[in-house]
Specification:
The complex is a heterodimer. Chain A has three domains: 50 residues, no CATH class; 120 residues, Rossmann fold (3-Layer(aba) Sandwich), CATH 3.40.50.10070; 275 residues, TolB, C-terminal domain (Neuraminidase, 6 Propeller). Helix content of chain A is 13%, strand content 42%. Chain A has a six-stranded antiparallel beta sheet, with helices on one face. In chain A, strands 3, 4, 5, 6, 7 and 8 form a six-stranded mixed beta sheet that branches. A four-stranded antiparallel beta sheet of chain A has the order 11-10-9-32, with no helix packed on it. In chain A, α3 packs across α5. The longest helix of chain A has 17 residues. Chain B folds into two domains: 52 residues, no CATH class; 111 residues, 2-Layer Sandwich (60s Ribosomal Protein L30, Chain: A), CATH 3.30.1330. Chain B is 53% helix and 12% strand. Chain B has five helices and four strands, in the order ααβαβαβαβ. Chain B has a four-stranded mixed beta sheet. In chain B, α4 links the parallel β2 and β3. In chain B, α2 packs across α3. Chain B starts with a helix and ends in an 8-residue tail after the last strand. In chain B, 25% of the residues are buried. The chains are: A mainly beta, B alpha+beta. Chains A and B meet through β16 of A and α4 and β3 of B.
């Protein structure tokens, strides 16, 4: 009885996180995709605000409030054995920030001093109001370092899980990534779902002092470790991660004609991929099995989406025919479908379409309504769910159009859009490996930068501030050698 | 050799040698202080004049040749300039404007006179519209220029095209002045550029 009382008390002290998410529900039906009945929970004042904010032709805008309990976690200072306390502090800081950025925890940061090293006093932590307690230690044994962490479930008063991993030296480039992988392990223990701490984001931007070129850059998921990948003094466009996280394909103009190149990050080498015949090659995207790309081939006679086998260097195949431009392809997570942008409805009303990956009749995903235009672009298929993120233009106050990030949920017929951004202009969304966070380019009154938004809570943070970046792509989950983990999925089978 | 003074000295020396003939020793007489005869002077003058005239003619011809070469180079440079001058387009259009047509006709003459010249057409767009659409628009503009030129019988094999979309503006800025300069096709000579002759 006593414990129940405390639990109730602590729950009342826990700051409930309320997510304010705008949802858009399409009225009526479109070819092939049934629209949802407009039964969304409409809150009167919110609806009013939404109508002031903007409209998409043929689409009603409502706000949905989503309440979600976010468990508090305490992270004890990381102890050290045979190593300087500073290493422990650095590990603890990375863990705390990763778990905060995962948006799955409330980080309890003013911790009481714990004097006993004799196990975890569950009763004490229970009364302190945390659900989870993370303890850790860095050991230095004969020149090698190990990081061990334990996750304690305070509610059930037991040790939930523990791990011990080799830790590179603090000045080693893999040091942070090793800690990020432990953060993702903690997320997996608690939620059974894939995290995104051990991942990176690639984008392109103008290097300092070279106004005529755009080069590729890469940054860790927490905004650390920004570095330049290409030194071509030419145009680099639309980088895309391979499914194993070891390679990045992109379009470069360095031979005078735009062609696709593939960077091998571990070997620091590069090769040309794609058919050698004439034509301009743009916007590569990898098939989930990694051996094939889909890209846009443009020549005197054709402008269309083609697939190409990069493993055997063969088998160019046109996927969608016709004179209208079809651009920006992205494979579905199972590789069976391709989402892309088509200009078939007019060059200034780009629409998001889905078709079978071997080609075939496409269906519109974005809420195109005949005669009413609409502007939807930059689609990216979630690695974990049948959701597509894209950028869309909506009419803001007055005559100004605004660009925002939306998610279309294909499980619900694709007709329901969730609007993730509320301010400025936003484009180039790309899903994190957790299928939950999205990186995008945001233009604000104080500058353009790379942002990350949590699609569940709507919480937004700056990843790289004040850079004129474009074409973001979020890597898969990265393993020890920078490549993707071979195994996905958690103890509870949390990966859909 | 044609110096008259030298001729006179040579004459005197040969007279001296003839006078010493016969093996007999003779008292050397000072040769009489004789000047060149009026005939000799006139002859020398005639030779000198003809040489001067010849030299002047050579210089005139040389200057003429140089002027011609300069003119040829100037015309080649002008031709090259004309060939490489960018052409411009209306917003969201790839059809050939009248000023663009005039510019392309001038290029066409040069291409006819220089069958070895090959060009790369680089299509550009202003920043409005999606970057992917602008890649297509830049390509349409480059192809539209190629189509115009091949319509006048110039082989399509001499042209390649590449689109930069909105990636490389000629002028930075989000205003009509910048946009008008950025909606363009640029021309790069990929072969035969060293041997261009003017029209």
């Amino acid at each position: 009885m006593m414990e129940t009382a405390v639990r109730t008390l602590t729950q009342s002290r826990r700051p409930p996180r309320t997510a304010f998410l705008a949802s858009i529900v399409a009225h009526g039906r479109r070819a092939g995709i049934p629209a949802l009945a407009t039964a969304a929970v409409a809150v009167a004042p919110a609806l009013l605000a939404a109508q002031e904010e903007g409209v998409i032709p043929g689409v009603a805008l409502t706000l949905l409030y989503e309440n979600r309990y976010v468990p508090p976690i305490a992270i004890l200072p990381i102890a050290t054995t045979g190593d300087s306390p500073e290493v422990g502090e650095r590990v603890g800081a990375i863990l705390a920030r990763d778990l905060d950025y995962s948006d799955r925890f409330v980080i309890v940061d003013s911790l009481p001093a714990v004097f006993s090293d004799e196990g975890v006093e569950y009763g004490f932590w229970d009364q302190y109001g945390v659900d989870w307690l993370l303890t850790g230690r860095v050991e230095r044994v004969a020149g090698s370092r190990f990081l061990s962490v334990e996750l304690h479930d305070i509610v059930t008063a037991d040790l939930r899980a523990r791990t011990r991993v080799p830790l590179p030296a603090p000045d080693h480039p893999d040091f942070r990534m090793a800690v990020h992988r432990v953060s993702d392990q903690v997320v997996m223990w608690v939620t059974g779902e894939q995290g995104m701490a051990a991942s990176r984001i690639v984008f392109r931007m103008r290097p300092f002092g070279d106004p005529d070129s755009k080069e590729l850059y890469m940054v860790d998921s927490d905004g650390a470790n920004l570095r330049r990948l290409t030194w071509d003094s030419d145009l680099a466009i639309s980088p895309a991660w391979s499914p194993d996280g070891a390679r990045i394909a992109y379009t470069s103009y360095k031979t005078g004609v735009p062609r696709i190149f593939e960077l091998d990050l571990a070997r620091n080498t590069e090769r040309s991929i794609g058919p050698a015949n004439e034509g301009q090659h743009h916007m590569p995207a990898y098939h989930p099995h990694g051996g094939e790309i889909v890209f846009r081939l443009m020549s005197r006679s054709v402008d269309g989406l083609f697939s190409y086998n990069i493993r055997d260097d063969c088998c160019l195949r046109q996927l969608v025919s016709g004179l209208s431009e079809n651009v920006q392809p992205s494979y579905s997570r199972d590789g069976r479908s391709i989402v892309f942008v088509s200009l078939r409805f007019g060059s200034h009303t780009p629409q998001v379409l889905i078709m079978p990956s071997e080609g075939g009749r496409p269906q519109t995903l974005s809420p195109y309504r005949y005669g009413q235009g609409g502007f939807f672009t930059d689609p990216d298929w979630s690695p974990l769910a049948d959701q597509v993120a894209f950028a869309g233009r909506i009419q803001g106050r007055g005559t100004y159009a605004r660009y925002h990030i939306f998610i279309a949920d294909l499980d619900e017929g694709g007709s329901r859009l969730t609007q993730l951004t509320r301010e400025g202009n936003n484009e180039d969304p790309s899903w994190a490996p957790d299928g939950r966070h999205i990186v995008f380019i945001g233009e604000r009154s104080n500058g353009t930068g790379v942002f990350v938004v949590d699609s569940v809570t709507g919480r937004t943070r700056v990843l790289v501030a004040n850079v004129d970046a474009e074409d973001t792509d979020w890597s898969p989950s990265l393993g020890a050698d920078g490549a993707s983990r071979s195994t996905r999925g958690g103890p509870q089978g949390g990966i859909r | 050799m044609s110096n008259p003074r030298f001729v006179l000295v040579a004459l005197a020396v040969s007279l001296l040698v003839i006078g010493c003939g016969g093996g007999q020793e003779q008292v050397m007489e000072d040769p009489a202080p004789t000047g060149p005869t009026p005939e000799e002077l006139a002859e020398a003058q005639r030779i000198e004049d003809s040489i001067r005239a010849y030299n002047a003619e050579q210089a005139r011809l040389q200057a003429e040749r140089e002027a011609e070469a300069r003119e040829t180079a100037r015309r080649a440079a002008a031709a090259r300039n004309t060939l490489m001058q960018a052409v411009y387009f209306d917003y969201d259009e790839s059809n050939i404007r009248t000023d663009t047509e005039t510019a392309l006709r001038a290029k066409m003459e040069i291409l006819r006179a220089n069958p070895g010249v090959m060009l790369r057409m680089e299509g550009h767009a202003d920043e409005r519209g999606t970057s992917e659409y602008n890649i297509a628009l830049g390509n349409e503009r480059a192809e539209s220029v190629i189509q115009f030129l091949t319509g006048f019988g110039i082989s399509a094999d001499r042209f390649t095209s590449v689109s930069y979309g909105e990636e490389q503006p000629a002028m930075q800025g989000s205003n009509e002045d910048a946009w008008a300069l950025n909606r363009r096709v640029e021309f790069v000579i990929t072969a035969g550029g060293d041997a261009i002759v003017g029209g």
